[in-house]
Amino acid sequence: MSQWPSLLAGYEGAEPLPTTINPDGKSLYNPPGPRSAAYDEFPKQFSPSKNGFDFHIYYMAAVAAQAQYAKELHERVRREFPELRIYRLWDKPIGPHPTAMFEVNTFNPHQTGALFSWLVVNRGPCDVLVHPNTGDALRDHTELATWIGRTWPLYEEGLFSTRPS
Fold it and tell me: Phi, psi at residue 11, to the nearest 5°?
């Protein structure tokens, strides 16, 4: 048995999806259906006592051009997204993060999508660790994390898991 629950639970007996190809010759036709709740709220696995996602923007403080870009990116994020929680610039490793960084928190799916897409094209030489907050810090920073740019190894020793051993 898989360690992952089926994502199709609740769709047993649903009409099969069509295999019709759209006029572009590549994509599949999807019949109209109800709007996903994921547009407006985070999945139930998220910790309701925390923000939804953390974005950790990494840079190499010893590389002057990167440090300057990170400083400007930090200011621009503060100006572009004043509704988000934005932490100070750290010029050295902190916690599980192996290099200088700053952190930005999002609180709903719209903010998360907007910041993610904005950082994809504006991150410059910086790399971004993006992770949810489910209450399991180790899993959030590793198994459930994604990266914009290059991946960095984390210091996992200080991250605690709530999963049974």
Answer: -105, 10
SS3 letters across the chain: CCCCCCCCCCCCCCCCCCCCECCCCCCECCCCCCCCHHHCCCCCCCCCCCCCEEEEEEECCCCHHHHHHHHHHHHHHHHHCCCCEECCCECCCECCECCEEEEEEECCHHHHHHHHHHHHHHCCCCEEEEEECCCCHHHHHCCCCEEECCCCCCCHHHCCCCCCC
pLDDT tens, position by position, 138-160: 999 999 999 999 999 999 998 87
